[in-house]
Amino acid sequence: MYAQALETFQRARQLTSDAPVMLMAYGYAQGLAGNVSEARAALQKLQQLAGTRFVPSLYPAAIHVALGETDEAFRLLDLAYQEKVDRLVYLNVDPMADPIRSDPRFRPLMAKIGFH
């Protein structure tokens, strides 16, 4: 149901004037749908917004997960840990992290967060 999800996230982007969390959700869905150029455009927009406001590194990390770019995703997740992003506590159950849970870097990240 990618088409429906993408339409919903696009509308959410409009209603929130491209709130970073909506850009993340949109870019993540685009990446999962195989729309690499749209996912990269969302990454670029997040980077642009980061020049004027705080954008948690978790947001671009999620898009990199959807694109299958796990090295960059883990680099950004480590940055999110350093930023003390509270949403990291949900990685054990967040479907966004499903593709990276089997990666050997996931357990040490969870241990750093406080989950053993």
Quick recap of the structure?
The chain has 116 residues and is mainly alpha-helical.
What are the SSEs and their pairings?
Elements: H1 2-15, H2 20-32, H3 36-50, H4 58-66, H5 70-82, H6 106-113
Helix pairs in contact: 1-2, 2-3, 2-4, 4-5, 5-6
How does this structure look, described?
The mean pLDDT is 94. The N and C termini lie far apart (35 Å). The protein contains six helices and no strands. The chain has helices at residues 2-15, 20-32, 36-50, 58-66, 70-82, 106-113. Helix 1 runs antiparallel to helix 2 and helix 2 runs parallel beside helix 4 (58-66). The chain is mostly helical. It has one domain (2-113).
Characteristics:
116 residues, mainly alpha, 62% helix
Which regions have little confidence, pLDDT < 50, spanning 5+ residues? Answer: none
Query: Structural class given helices, strands, pairing?
Result: mainly alpha
Number of domains: 1
Radius of gyration, in Å, reads: 14 Å
Q: Provide a count of the helices.
A: 6
End-to-end gap: 35 Å
Q: Could you describe the largest sheet, including whether it forms a barrel?
A: none
Strand content: under 5%
User: Level of helix content?
Assistant: 55-70%
> If you average the pLDDT, what whole number results?
94
The helix/strand series, from N terminus to C terminus, equals HHHHHH
Shape: globular
Question: How many runs of DSSP E, i.e. beta strands?
Answer: 0
